[in-house]
Every structure is written in C-alpha cells, then in structure tokens.
Write a structure and sequence with these properties.
mainly alpha; 2 helices
Length: 79
C-alpha cells in the first residue's frame, strides 16, 4: 500500500468509527417546562381553513333550507 492510500484508509475508518459513535449517543433528558407555544394563526393555515369554513357555512345553509322545506311539506300533508 502506498502511504497516501494507507492514509486514506485510516481516515475512512476514523470517519466511520466517529459517525457510528455519534449515532449511539444518549438522548437528552426531557425538560420540565413545556415547549414554546407556536404561532396561533399563519397565512397558510388561514388559506387552508377559509374554504373549509365556507363549505361548512354552505352545508348549514342547505340543511336549514332542507329542514324548512320538509317542515312546509309536513305542514301541508299533515305528516
């Protein structure tokens, strides 16, 4: 083996050994305080939630209209 190849092999072994030991490190103990609160509203969350809220409003309006229509039918048919 040439000196440079031997040096490269030793460096490779050292890198593998060091990376292997870092993967086995002990996890940090949990802290007693809760995590910091996240932002309550973001533009992305609002952009996603807006069509959902609109759909729920339309669904409620349609259900109210269907209930009213059913009540009118029941009143006219005596049912």
């Amino acid at each position: 083996m040439h000196l440079s190849m031997r040096h490269a092999a030793i460096c490779s072994i050292a890198i593998v050994a060091l990376s292997g030991t870092s993967a086995c490190s002990k996890p940090e103990p949990p802290t007693d305080r809760p995590p910091e609160p996240q932002a309550q509203h973001t533009a992305l969350r609002d952009a996603i939630q807006q069509p959902i809220d609109q759909a729920k409003a339309v669904e409620k309006a349609m259900q109210d209209a269907a209930d009213k229509q059913q009540a009118e039918i029941d009143a006219k048919t005596g049912g």
